[in-house]
Design goal:
The chain is an alpha/beta fold. It contains 13 helices and 19 strands. The protein folds into 2 domains: 11-184, Rossmann fold (3-Layer(aba) Sandwich); 193-288 and 296-403, Rossmann fold, CATH 3.40.50.10300. The model has no long low-confidence stretch (mean pLDDT 90). It catalyses: (R)-4'-phosphopantothenate + L-cysteine + CTP = N-[(R)-4-phosphopantothenoyl]-L-cysteine + CMP + diphosphate + H(+); N-[(R)-4-phosphopantothenoyl]-L-cysteine + H(+) = (R)-4'-phosphopantetheine + CO2.
């Protein structure tokens, strides 16, 4: 992971709460410093039971804020901290700190600062899996997301209490990366909920064989990363891809076209923009075997296929005031096929890309693309996928603005 750098010094206020994962905050701090940011530390009283303020003071060469009245030189410390920060990072964030934020409770230095700040807030939860999945916690998270607070989904794995499940603090690298993105990204997508599909689908022939395509998922992941960096809430529906998922993104993992269809239809309900970049299989075996087929016993002379559900057409037919963008990966007559697809599907635009080239398409870092709408065809040229992602998002947002 390469933590992004900064062209000018900005300040991250790192808020550390009372959690066993507090020791990882030291590594987060060092990664942010390495990226060129100034880091100030604010701790709760309970956090000092896990990591001493001396550690953070030695790393930052600055005072560590703990109590409301512990700095006589700054009698309104929660306001000065709130105003000084370019981003406020709460890592780790306990269930209690999330609940206090959601309900506006301000009874210590950290909670008053979080209530007073106008800077973007990024929360990295860490807690027992039962506490994370509890209805109260999930409702509090939803409240804060609706207010524009950013979250990094906790990891799953072995927890300090001995349980195995979701609630583990994400890696310091992932948290630092998401923090850098907030510091450097545009905010023109704040308030938007962007649904993105990515990667191929695997259509099973038997438990070990499947029909697939060469999609790597890179384009969809760059779209998700760019949307996140520009302030959107992002839901990523990812087929079986091997690339790492960007931090801070709600991700639904699927395998088949049917699973992707069901997940996309469900997520579309709360989306404002849908960008369907996945290379979904057009056909799937009609009767996949429940056991591995042996050529000596079960010779495969043919594989009967049926069409998969058309995700793009279905979302487009129900889009109302939402924007739906499709993709067309073609090897010849790229624009002609894209224009025909646009008419069939009824979406707002098609991103046509030429996958026959050696320098673009599946698995590459580039795409040779056109933006196709009912009124125009814009040649976008050969672009890196991140640059293309930003172009697609800007054009999608313009589409949405013009609808109003």
């Amino acid at each position: 992971m390469g933590v992004c750098g900064s062209s000018e010094e900005k300040t991250v206020l790192l808020c550390v709460t009372g959690c066993i994962a507090a020791y990882k905050s030291c590594e987060i701090l060092r990664l942010l410093q390495k990226a060129g940011y100034r880091v100030k530390v604010l701790m709760t009283e309970h956090a000092t039971q896990f990591v001493g303020p001396t550690t953070f003071r030695a790393l930052t060469h600055e005072k560590v804020a703990i109590g409301l009245f512990d700095d006589p030189e700054d009698p309104i410390h929660h306001i000065s901290l709130a105003q000084e920060a370019d981003v406020v990072l709460v890592a780790p964030a306990t269930a209690n700190s999330i609940a206090k934020m959601a309900h506006g409770i301000a009874d210590d230095l950290m909670s008053t600062t979080l209530l007073a700040t106008k800077a973007p807030i990024l929360i990295a939860p860490a807690m027992n899996s039962g506490m994370w999945s509890a209805a109260a916690t999930q409702e509090n998270v939803a409240v804060l997301k609706n207010r524009g607070v950013h979250f990094i989904q906790p990891d799953s794995g072995y927890l300090a209490c001995g349980d195995v499940g979701s609630g583990r603090l994400p890696t310091p690298e992932a948290i630092a990366d998401a923090t850098c993105s907030l510091l450097q990204g545009s905010t023109d997508l704040v308030g938007e909920h962007v649904l993105i599909t990515a990667g191929p689908t695997h259509e099973p022939i038997d438990p070990v064989r499947y029909i697939a395509n060469r999609s790597s998922g890179k384009m969809g992941l760059e779209l998700a990363r760019a949307a996140r960096d520009r302030g959107a809430n992002v839901t990523l529906i990812a087929g079986p891809i091997e690339l790492p998922i960007p931090a801070g993104i709600e991700t639904i993992h699927v395998q088949t076209a049917s699973q992707m269809h069901n997940a996309a239809v469900k997520a579309f309900g709360c989306s404002t923009i849908a960008i369907l970049a996945a290379a979904v299989a057009d056909y799937t075996p009609s009767a996949p075997s429940d056991h591995k087929l042996k050529k000596a016993v079960d010779p495969i002379d043919s594989i009967p296929l049926i069409q998969t559900q058309d995700i793009l057409a279905e979302l487009s037919s129900n889009k109302e005031d939402r924007i739906v963008i499709g993709f067309a990966a073609e090897t010849n007559d790229v624009v002609d096929y894209a224009e025909a697809k646009l008419k069939r599907k009824g979406c707002d635009a098609i991103v046509a890309n030429d996958v026959s080239r050696s320098d673009a398409g599946f698995g590459s870092s580039n795409n040779r693309a056109w933006w196709v709408t009912s009124s125009s065809v814009d040649d976008l040229g050969l672009l890196e996928k991140r640059a293309l992602a930003d172009e697609i998002l800007s054009r999608s947002l313009l589409f949405k603005t013009n609808l109003k």
